[in-house]
Amino acid sequence: MGIITKQGDITQIDCDAIINPANSFGYMGGGVAGAIKRAGGKEIENEAVSKAPIVVGKAIATTAGDLPCEYVIHAPTMKRPAMRTSVKNIEQATQAALKLAEKLNLRCIAIPGMGTGVGRVPQEKAAKAITTIVKEFEDKLETIILIDRNRKMIDSFNSFL
Prior knowledge:
By secondary structure, the chain is of the alpha/beta class. The chain contains 5 helices and 6 strands.
């Protein structure tokens, strides 16, 4: 299927893994991480914290708890919770998540707009960074779903695809 975009809730998507734009400590307080923890259960955060620190540019996989996927891949875009991030960190996080998905032989993953909430990267810049890296993995995974609740983020993804 390749790369597709979808407006919606990442915690409800049926795929092999969803990507959590994490922090290096594994804490899942707000934004996408908080939504994942609320929908999937505290055990996701507990396992992420037990595997921390996770440096920016690396990724880890944890249980998905009650989510419809098998794994949550935690790819830090920032060291500390709620700190400002950069386009470079978003690129590194996206690449680390996709490399781990490939290593785990996953077929379908879902990626949200990363770094656009508390990280404060403009949606267009984040979308360009994410889609640039995703295109490098298009032939390595069966389906990559770029998903976000925000229509502007989806439009930004589409403009770079």
